[in-house]
Write a structure and sequence with these properties.
The chain is of the alpha+beta class and 115 residues long. It has a single domain, classed as Gcn5-related N-acetyltransferase (GNAT) (Aminopeptidase, 3-Layer(aba) Sandwich). Helix content is 28%, strand content 34%. The chain has a three-stranded antiparallel beta sheet, covered by helices on one side. The longest helix has 15 residues.
Amino acid sequence: MFGVVEKASGEWIGRIGPWHPLHWPTRDVGWGLRKAYWGKGYGLEAATASLDYAFDHLGWDSVTHLIADENVMSQKLAARLGSKPGEYVNLPGSLSDVRLCVWSQTRKDWIRSKN
């Protein structure tokens, strides 16, 4: 993932980007910003750049976002990016009791949404 730094202040505000840790169930573009920076467009801007990077530079054919049902803000961001909810997965290892919804889209969907 990439660190997100606010240009105006130089302050680190979170992390956003592609990742696929060992045993992770999907290739994911995830995000986590400090609450004080929610709703200011940083998530959309950085997630858009991260999707471009995943598709154009990493060569991924699809991207997911694993989102808890109660995380409405992340669901809204995923929807704005063009992803749709689908199946549920459990995380690996010590997080095996965590069940998340797989929001996803294909490279083809992403390209179509930008035109």
